[in-house]
Design brief:
With about 170 residues, the chain is an alpha/beta fold. Helix content is about 20%, strand content about 20%.
């Protein structure tokens, strides 16, 4: 801008280029589920490793996530319908405040344990959380069988069919 004097009405736009950070690890179908442990909204310790031997639906959600309000009732229905047959559901609330997450969970009458993971920095590390909700089905051996991102019309039928099918064919649904 040599020879040009900026006045109060001139707009300056500056770009900053920074090196890319580390890649976000992504949970992979057919691979062992990443570690997931922490404290539930009710204050109890929870560890995915303790659920080996059960099929587990891991559900990442947040109170500010609009599609989560459609998805959470579906996951709760799956839990209620199949818990007696051995299905386990583990929620992970990615909120900055435990109170907001607890109120949101209560508003849906969630009966499955939900970890509180402020901003997804601790318990959710290694799961590749880029879109919410994120539902991951882990088989009784601890192997990921389904990764489902987001929630749209008809996704309730997809999740229900996957649970009923018995998790025989690894799939990624986006």
């Amino acid at each position: 801008l040599t020879g040009h004097h900026l006045g109060p009405d001139d707009l300056i736009i500056a770009l900053t280029v920074a090196p890319a950070g580390p890649a976000i690890p992504t949970v992979a179908v057919g691979a062992p589920a990443p570690a997931l442990r922490g404290v539930s909204l009710s204050g109890e310790p929870v560890d995915l490793a303790d659920l080996l031997g059960h099929v587990v639906v891991v559900d990442f959600w947040a109170s500010w996530c609009v599609p989560c309000s459609d998805e959470l009732p579906v996951v709760e229905r799956l839990h209620a319908a199949r818990a007696s047959a051995g299905l386990r559901v583990l929620g992970v609330a990615i909120d900055s405040e435990a109170r907001a997450a607890d109120q949101y969970a209560s508003s849906f009458g969630l009966t499955f344990p939900t970890l509180f993971d402020p901003d997804g920095r601790t318990a959710a590390a290694g799961w590749g959380l880029a879109t919410m909700p994120l539902v991951v089905i882990v088989d009784c051996r601890g192997v990921v069988q389904l990764v489902h991102t987001g929630f749209r019309d008809g996704d309730d039928a997809i999740l229900d069919a996957e649970v009923r099918q018995g998790w025989q064919d690894p799939k990624v649904v986006r």
